[in-house]
Request: fold
Amino acid sequence: MSSLREFLHQNKNYISESHQVDIGGRLKGRPFTVRALTYDEYNRIQQEAATVSTKGRIRVDGGRIFEQIALACCLDPDFSNSDFITENNCLTPKQLLHSLLLPGEIVDLAKKIQEYSGFDQDFEELVTEAKN
Reply:
C-alpha cells in the first residue's frame, strides 16, 4: 500500500472529528466546536446559494454560503437546538445565528470551518468555482 493510500485510510474519519475554533474579537477565548464539511453538504450549499437570472447569468449569494456552512458544521453551540432557539426568542436556526453573531463573526466562523474542510483558497476563488 502506498504511503498516501495508507495515510488516507488511517485518516478517513477526519470529517467527523470536532475541532475547537477561536474566531477572536469579542468572542476571543470562547471557542466554537466545529467539524469539516462533507462533500454532499458542500454541493448542497453551493447549489442553494446559486441562482440563474433570466439572461442566464449565475449569481452566488456569498452571505448564504457562509451562514449555511456555519449552521451545518457548528456543533457547539448547536444553532439547530430547539431549546436554544426558543430561549433566544427565535423561530429558526438561521434567525438564531443572525441574532447572536455579528456578520463578520459568521464569516470568520465559516472561514475556519472551510480551512478544516480543505479549502485554502480565498472566498472569491470559491465563488468563481461555484459559478462554473
Q: What stands out?
A: The chain has one domain: 17-131. The chain has seven helices and five strands. The helical segments are 3-10, 39-49, 62-73, 82-87, 93-100, 103-116, 123-131.
